[in-house]
Design brief:
heterodimer; A: mainly alpha; B: alpha+beta; DUF403 domain-containing protein (chain A); ATP-dep_Glu-Cys_Ligase-2 (chain A); DUF403 (chain A)
Chain lengths: ~325, ~475
């Protein structure tokens, strides 16, 4: 297929995943706002979201450094004009890439793309009150799920489909690593506190951000032991939103695309796989979770660059 | 060209009504439709209208208007529920007239880029051709396969006050609208299936397969191994919806210039698996942008080297480069002569009377009657660069006169023709609006006209401008079987 179209399929999936993940993060954070301890300020509650979605620098530029409020963050993350990662921008770029690859996606998918854009374009730019916000995010996640369902049910299997899958997996891996990194550091500001009794709500929020709360509970009923949570979120092969699961799935997509003559991409992906294969909850905790996640993110970026060079140009 | 024998008559005339025979009753072929509409009632029409708008929105049937904000310039295709009906005898005349015209225009192009007999024989003044900006000296002497230049033509037809069909414009470069013709039919069938029970309407949805056949025939490697691409300027082009539509319908690659590269006079697509040879390029960009090595060097939309590959016979380009001179509006008044010259026949469909601005007598007459004239720039399309006399201001008329004097070859004028009217469903009421017709002609193994076309409607009351870029809408067009 055309290199440019492959690029569009990949980014179409990435932007939708990013919009969906951001909506999930916001939804959980709103809940957490209600559940968390009262003495926690808005600033503390929302800064991590801006960090995870890489929107903090633009936010600070617009509002100044010490002005993080719920209302502003809601507005900024949903449709802030200067926020390159706002949900609205993600949806716009999702549609734009779908339009470029219009001849490769099914009619059902295309109609869903338009439906999503028509439903959220204005809403995300308008005023978003606290009362309306939760519903908005829940609905949006449902729309994303619906699109992914149509993709699975109606799209021809082949290269284009594989690039969609790959884009979704890369974005999800990226998001999971960021969520773990940022959230974990808030929960555990001091590494010596490992193993101490931690706030149930904070761990619950982290797991819910990954849609893994119930699944974790079923496998770990003894409580929120940090090592167990990380082991689950990073290394659980059966959990569809763990790091290894996403990377495995990216590997399957790559196999369908075919890596013949694409040495750089193959090498970059192998490096990411081998890091995950050679680590476990134990080694990650000994060497530092933050260091490990940084390594994951940098290998992922390396993989993306190799892919862009060998496939998209 | 002598001054026209019948100058524009004074005062506005009454336009032909396609639907009504008189104040009380519809024309015969509309009677069944009319009975049905009356039996259904306004409420049902309202629902249907709403459904059709929703369907167009969800399906993303859009066009893009230039020159507005950066982000939201995409507009939903405006569609009117009430179909326009053309009877079998009417169509048969249109069809034979179009075939004749397209045949002659292709012979004309082959001659212009070859021996130029028509100029030597004094039928066409040489300066008319040489001053035309769409005459491409760079390709003189190249003969495309079978001498066909315009594989696809979209020729605009209007009906005058007497109901006669006249040719308004020949669009021979990259005519658009065919996807809307098909979408209109698809929507009409879905929303108003009961309408179709009452008439035998000829089909139009097979247009893409006719086109695909014509394109495959052009492959230098033979019909069996034809790698065909549709070359689009990209998602910001006004007709991008149509480009994706056609690429999908034909199952061909939708490519931009940057997706292709020319090596040793062979054009290749850049794919994830390496380079892949291209045989036929259905381009939807103008000559100017096609090849920066030959035409505009600042263009990044085209493919460097594609003209040389075409010259070498390694790739077919559809429509052929250089076709634009034949639909130059200054050449238009000569088309009847062109038909007589090459075919020895009288034109079946007449032109709209046209004044040459290079002719001092014509020009003076036009300047004296500006309010009743349409002044058009010769190589513009889409309703851009045009003065509509009746709705113009004195300042605008003055501006156009200055422009004409500055470059007379660049303008023509026509007396305003009051385009025929048809009923349209406008916000709950049935109201009359002016319209035209753009049928599509494919020149492959032979010349075929798809029975139908795009009926464009001027949605603003009283307006005579049907272009979608200027507030125009559309209708499904039914050509009735015998």
């Amino acid at each position: 297929m055309l290199s440019r179209i492959a690029d569009s399929m990949y980014w179409m999936a990435r932007y939708l995943e990013r919009a969906g993940e951001t909506a999930r993060l916001m939804e959980i954070n709103l809940l957490y706002l209600v559940e968390a301890e009262e003495d926690m300020g808005e600033e503390e509650k929302w800064r991590p979201v801006l960090e995870i979605t890489a929107a903090l620098p633009q936010y600070v530029e617009l509002y100044g450094d010490d002005a993080i409020t719920t209302q502003r963050v809601l507005q900024f993350v949903c449709g802030g004009r200067t926020n390159n990662n706002s949900i609205r921008t993600c949806l716009r770029l999702f549609r734009e890439n779908a339009r470029v690859a219009r001849d490769r996606i099914s009619k059902e998918m295309w109609e869903a793309v338009n439906d999503i854009w028509m439903t959220y374009n204005e809403r995300l730019r308008g005023s978003i009150t606290l009362e309306k916000a939760s519903n908005l995010f829940v609905e949006l996640r449902n729309q994303v799920a619906r699109f992914n369902g149509l993709l699975a049910a109606t799209m021809m299997r082949g290269e284009a489909y594989a690039f969609c899958q790959l884009g979704g997996c890369v974005e999800r891996t990226d998001m999971i690593a960021r969520i773990l990194d940022v959230k974990y550091h808030i929960i555990l500001p001091d590494i010596h506190l490992v193993g101490s009794a931690l706030d149930y709500y904070q761990w619950a929020a982290l797991l819910k951000s990954l849609s893994g709360f119930e699944a974790f509970r079923r496998t770990n009923q003894s409580g929120f032991e940090p090592k167990a949570v990380v082991d689950f979120a990073v290394f659980e092969h059966d959990f569809p939103r763990s790091l290894v699961f996403s990377v495995d799935r990216a590997g399957a997509a790559l196999a369908n695309i075919g890596l013949e003559g694409k040495e750089k991409t193959a090498a970059a992906f192998a490096a990411l796989q081998s890091l995950l294969a050679s680590s476990n909850g134990e080694t990650v905790f000994t060497n530092g979770l933050h260091e490990f996640l940084e390594q994951v993110l940098s290998l992922l970026a390396g993989f993306h660059n190799a892919l862009a060079e060998e496939f998209f140009q | 060209m002598p001054p026209l024998s019948s100058p524009a008559s004074s005062g506005p005339k009454t336009s032909y009504h396609e639907f009504y025979a008189d104040d009380f009753s519809p024309r015969d072929h509309y009677r069944l439709l009319w009975d049905h509409i009356r039996a259904t009632g306004n409420n049902a029409l309202e629902t249907k209208d709403h459904e059709s708008q929703l369907a167009l929105q969800t399906e993303g049937v859009t066009f893009t208007v230039y020159g507005e904000s950066e982000e939201e310039i995409e507009r939903i295709w405006p569609f009117d529920l009430i179909p326009r009906i053309i009877t079998a005898p009417e169509w048969s005349r249109i069809e034979s007239g179009l075939k004749q015209r397209v045949k002659a225009l292709n012979l004309f192009l082959e001659d212009l880029y070859g021996e130029q007999k028509i100029i030597k024989d004094g039928v066409i003044p040489p300066e008319l051709i040489y001053q035309g900006k769409d005459f491409r000296r760079e390709i003189v002497g190249i003969v495309p396969p079978r001498g066909i230049y315009t594989h696809i033509s979209g020729i605009d037809i209007i009906r005058d006050e007497q109901g006669d069909f006249l040719i308004l414009e020949d669009n021979l470069r990259t005519p658009s609208g065919v996807s809307y013709m098909i979408e209109n039919r698809v929507i009409e069938r879905r929303i108003l299936p009961e309408f179709f029970n009452k008439y035998r309407v000829r089909r139009v949805e097979h247009y893409p397969s006719l086109l695909l056949d014509a394109l495959r025939c052009l492959s230098p490697r033979g019909k069996g191994t034809a790698e065909i691409v549709l070359l689009t300027p990209g998602i910001y082009n006004s007709a991008y919806f149509e480009h994706t539509f056609l690429a999908k319908e034909m199952g061909i690659e939708l490519a931009e210039g940057r997706d292709m590269v020319t090596i040793n006079d062979i054009v290749y697509l850049k794919t994830t698996k390496g380079l892949k040879r291209v045989d036929v390029i259905y381009r939807r960009i103008d000559d100017d942008y096609l090849d920066p090595l030959i035409f505009r060097s600042d263009s990044s939309l085209g493919i460097a080297g594609v003209i040389n590959a075409w010259r070498a016979g390694n790739v077919a380009i559809v429509n052929a480069p250089g076709s634009g001179i034949a639909d130059d509006k200054a050449v238009y008044p000569f088309v009847p002569d062109i038909i007589r010259y090459y075919l020895g026949q009288q034109p079946i469909l007449k032109n709209v009377p046209t004044y040459q601005m290079t002719n001092a007598t014509d020009r003076e007459y036009v300047f004296d009657n500006m309010e009743r004239m349409v002044v058009k720039a010769v190589s513009e399309s889409g309703g851009y660069g045009m003065l509509m006399g009746p709705s113009s201001t004195p300042a605008l008329r003055k501006e156009f006169m200055d422009r004409v004097l500055e470059n007379p070859r660049n303008y023509i004028a026509q007396p305003v023709v009051y385009l025929s009217r048809h009923i349209c469903y406008m916000d709950g009421e049935l109201e009359a609006r002016h319209l035209d017709l753009r049928p599509f002609v494919i020149y492959g193994e032979d010349i075929q006209v798809v029975p139908g076309g795009l009926t464009r409607v001027a949605l603003r009351k009283g307006s005579l401008v049907v272009n979608s870029s200027q507030g125009g809408g559309s209708k499904d067009t039914w050509v009735l079987a015998e």
